Amino acid sequence: MQHGNNQRVYIQDVAVRDGFQIEPEFIATSEKIGLIDTLSRTGLAKIEVTSFTSPKAIPALADAEAVMQGIERVPGVIYTVLVPNVRGAERALICRADELNIVMSLSETHNLTNLRMKREQSFSQLAEVIRFARPTGVALNVSLSCAFGCPMEGVVEQDEVFGWAHRFVDLGVDGITLCDTTGMAHPTQVQFMCNAFKQRWPSTELTLHFHNTRGMGLANVIAALEAGVDRFDASLGGLGGCPYAPGATGNICTEDLTHMLALSGYDTNVDLDLLIACGRRLPAMLGHDVPGQVGKAGKVSDLHSIPQWLPEIKARADAKVALA
Amino acid sequence: MQHGNNQRVYIQDVAVRDGFQIEPEFIATSEKIGLIDTLSRTGLAKIEVTSFTSPKAIPALADAEAVMQGIERVPGVIYTVLVPNVRGAERALICRADELNIVMSLSETHNLTNLRMKREQSFSQLAEVIRFARPTGVALNVSLSCAFGCPMEGVVEQDEVFGWAHRFVDLGVDGITLCDTTGMAHPTQVQFMCNAFKQRWPSTELTLHFHNTRGMGLANVIAALEAGVDRFDASLGGLGGCPYAPGATGNICTEDLTHMLALSGYDTNVDLDLLIACGRRLPAMLGHDVPGQVGKAGKVSDLHSIPQWLPEIKARADAKVALA
Fold first, then answer.
1. In this predicted structure, what is the pLDDT of residue A68?
2. Which of B3, B18, B184, B220 sits in a 20 to 30 Å window from A219, CA-based?
3. What single string gives the DSSP state of each residue in B196-245?
4. What phi and psi, each to the nearest 5 degrees, are found at residue B274?
5. pLDDT, tens digit, for every residue of A145-192?
6. Are the beta carbons of A158 and A196 closer than 8 angstroms?
7. Separation in Å, CA B158 to CA A243, A304, B161, B165, B196
8. Cα(A204)–Cα(A99) distance, rounded to whole angstroms?
């Protein structure tokens, strides 16, 4: 393996959807739009803007239309939205979404818990969305939850993951996201799964979506990069969380990911300073601390000033050397 | 690269020295001993017990002798202690330390700031320790701070790192620890440095000491493993911190490291459940939260129970399928 080498890596931010949807206080539409507009200028490949779901189910994103219509589109950025069904797809298309992201879980128990239906029912519903949206030319991505394990069922076999992936590839989706929804993936598993996926579907756009619930988030990114993956979801400030792990961190943090990739010689196309500035707006906006580290510690290249008392210490040390 | 494969990895805990030394409240000697005695039974390869420095300089570790004499030695565990000078080495030898760990920084500015002397002065003092202790047969390890960068000077060239390492190898140390003191290392750098070190000094025991200041701690472990490194410092609960990055996390967390390695197929020899139980004692002992993630989220294999309302949801879903 040889890291870096200026290889292009695509970073996709999900904070304003995946992060904001669990915030207890409603974030003003204008604040969402302001943040997305700044994020758009950082050079991110994709921004998951909102979710066209029922406002009753996710009140935090009840302003989906207003946000989509309010933001300024920057050429080159893909504005994706989550849609659960055909009704959501209609709303998203009216708002000129560049991509529809559809979601189901690979664990029957998790799908029942989260989406209140069986996997086959989810699949039928999503197949309908695909058939409905395909002719419009909009891009279609499917996010497969619990691809690396289910917090209730445990192991999700790779055959299961690839079986569902296969059915979606057959329906003509453009991209597939393997989601480590509750932070269960580990580097060996990631390496194995990504290698197998890339071999089987070399022309399907593969995204990895990691959570840092057990501290393995960026280690899994390294493992995925080695398997040739070049596209990652991440969340500004590390927003996101997980209902199964209270107190644990959420999605991998976009600033931390971008910072590591830039240092390691990858080309992310992202203005890291502007990105960090975006992340530093979150605590005031949300009224709480966020888990991201680089926002707190600064970049490796942000050097600290030499303490004022150092010249005196140095003079004393020099004097001792002279005496010796 | 092929991860895991039951390869042995040695885990060395530094929490009771590196972590405890910056705790504002003095931790009772009996509590320290109790924690170390449990840690000893987890199967860790090495425990850094305390520091034989001046009690005025580090009051938190003023009970170094009492701790060393109070702990129960478990065969197979190496009990190492930090010593700054010959006086410290004498005290450590009286307490039958298995290993003396000596420290200097590879950055002149950081060494002056931290140890109040020039690097050459530190080197002379440590060379004296080595000459004094060598005949006793005690193991000797040198920890080189800022091996991956200095928070004030920035880049520390690899020639600089290897130049100092060379001088210590010549003096006959058994092991060298490359310390990423303030969390500046990134995976490409780690891979490059570790490969070069292993090639140059294949028989010197190499330890990597990472901090998670910018979220890259476990990613750097993956990079180091790939370069053939099999020995890591880590800190229970992720204790440690860094004065240059307020609010940032400290050393990589022993539970998080062990959990990742075990999942990824490495042989750590560590009883992960007992280790996690140790880490969960810290918040009560210290009066504050700790940064480690696995202690909060549990292991990947700690499954969550299925919600009580799930059978009803499932019955409704089944009914819908039957109707369709």
1. 98
2. B18
3. HHHHH-TTSEEEEE-B-TTS-HHHHHHHHHHTT--EEEEBGGG----TTS
4. -65, -40
5. 999 999 999 999 999 999 999 999 999 999 999 999 999 999 999 999
6. yes
7. 44, 21, 5, 10, 9
8. 15
**A26 with A249: CB under 8 angstroms?**
no
Q: Token pair for residue B294?
A: 């696995």
Cα–Cα distance between B41 and B39 in angstroms, integer? Answer: 5
DSSP category for residue A28: P
**What percent of chain A lies above the pLDDT cut of 90?**
93
Burial of A251 (0-12, 13-18, 19+ CB in 10 A): buried
Helix B310-323, helix A108-115: angle, nearest 10: 90
- For residue B242, the chain A residues in CB contact (below 8 A) are 297
Return residues 255-274 of A near B (CB < 8 Å).
256, 259-260, 263-265
Q: What span, in angstroms and rounded, lies between the C-alpha atoms of A244 and A246?
A: 6
Q: Closest to A152 (Cβ–Cβ): which among B151, B249, B303?
A: B303
| Inter-chain CB proximity B260 and A187 less than 8 Å | yes
In this model, does residue A323 exceed pLDDT 90? no
Strand partners, B139: B99
Mean model confidence pLDDT for chain B:
95
| Least confident segment among A207-211, B117-121, B277-281, B310-314 | B310-314
Residue B173 pLDDT: 98
B249 contacts in chain A (CB < 8 Å): 293
Backbone angles phi and psi of B200, in degrees to 5? -80, -40
Place of tokens 């002065």: B121
What own/partner pairs with CB < 8 Å and gap ≥ 24 does A53-58 have?
Answer: A53/A82, A53/A83, A53/A84, A53/A88, A58/A21
Closest CA to B45 of B178, B175, B192: B175
DSSP 8-state assignment for residue B15: I
Q: Which of A203, A161, A204 is nearest to A184 (CA)?
A: A161
List, as one string, the DSSP characters of B112-178: HHHHSS-HHHHHHHHHHHHHHHGGGT-EEEEEEETTT-BTTTB---HHHHHHHHHHHHHTT-SEEEE
Q: 């969305």: which residue's tokens?
A: A129
- The whole-number pLDDT of residue A234 equals 98
A242 in catalytic set: yes
Count Cβ atoms below 10 Å from residue A312 Cβ, excluding itself.
10
Interface probe with A: pick from B180, B188, B211, most Cβ of A within 10 Å: B188
- In this structure, whether the domain defined by B10-323 belongs to CATH 3.20.20.70 is answered with yes
Average the pLDDT over B159-186 and give the result.
97
The H or E element that residue B10 is part of is: strand B10-13
